[in-house]
Design a protein that fits this description.
The protein is built from eleven helices and no strands. 76% of the residues lie in helices and 0% in strands. The chain starts with a helix and ends with a helix. About 11% of the residues have low confidence. Helix 1 runs parallel beside helix 4 and helix 9 runs antiparallel to helix 10. By secondary structure, it is an all-alpha fold. The protein is globular. The protein has a domain of 110 residues.
């Protein structure tokens, strides 16, 4: 069921209060980014595609406030980067390249703070950028580096739904369906993430859709 965009925007306007409360309570860094994670999932899996770019833009502004207020929290930088790259994906075209570059910068900064933050999510997100951004001279895309980074992310979080799905997607795009299938099936077996039920549900649907496509192509 789609949630009205105004409802999402209302939550985004409330987000600064949630972030401030989290800081005052000295919440852990995972809790610090929980409101961002929740709103990201609402946008990605419940909003029409044509509305997502602007919703991601609003969420990116809130995410930036969190990372700016918590400069030593790799988790905050990672989630700002994820939201920015999601906006890039929603906008598409060469105009999204500057957003992809900013996401890359944020992820690289987070890795300097903590490579294992959020179970190696910086490696996963950075790998995805290198896999999807156009090659030089247009962009910074690099398939070989993408694969190296996916491997690093899986070394940190071998059972995670995101690294297994995104690496499986990369392998499918590289016309390596047998390898892709193994990682996609691992993604379906990933343990649930408390508080991230919507993200897990949406991701599993993406995994199954890709498995179905691979099976269809094999016929």
């Amino acid at each position: 069921m789609k949630v009205p965009a105004m409802t999402v925007l209302k939550h985004l306007l409330l987000a600064p209060l949630l972030f401030a409360a989290g800081s005052l309570l000295a919440a852990g860094n995972d809790d610090l980014v929980r409101p961002i994670q929740t709103q990201w999932a609402e946008i990605k899996y419940r909003q029409p595609e044509k509305q997502q770019a602007e919703l991601y833009r609003a969420l990116a502004q809130q995410a930036h406030k969190v990372s700016e207020s918590n400069p030593n929290a790799a988790e905050a930088l990672i989630w700002e980067a994820i939201v920015v790259s999601s906006e890039a994906g929603a906008r598409g075209g060469l105009g999204a390249l500057s957003l992809a570059k900013e996401s890359k910068r944020l992820l690289e900064e987070s890795l300097k703070l903590d490579e294992k933050a959020l179970s190696g999510s910086a490696y996963t997100s950075l790998a995805t950028l290198y896999a999807k951004v156009p090659f030089w001279p247009i962009g910074f895309g690099d398939k070989k580096l993408a694969e190296e980074l996916f491997r690093k992310s899986l070394a940190v979080n071998p059972q995670g739904i995101d690294p297994n799905f995104l690496y499986g997607e990369y392998l499918a795009d590289q016309n390596r369906p047998a390898e892709a299938r193994a990682f996609l099936e691992a993604a379906l077996k990933a343990p649930p993430r408390p508080g991230r039920e919507l993200a897990d549900s949406g991701r599993r649907q993406e995994v199954q859709a890709l498995l179905n496509r691979i099976a269809k192509d094999a016929r």
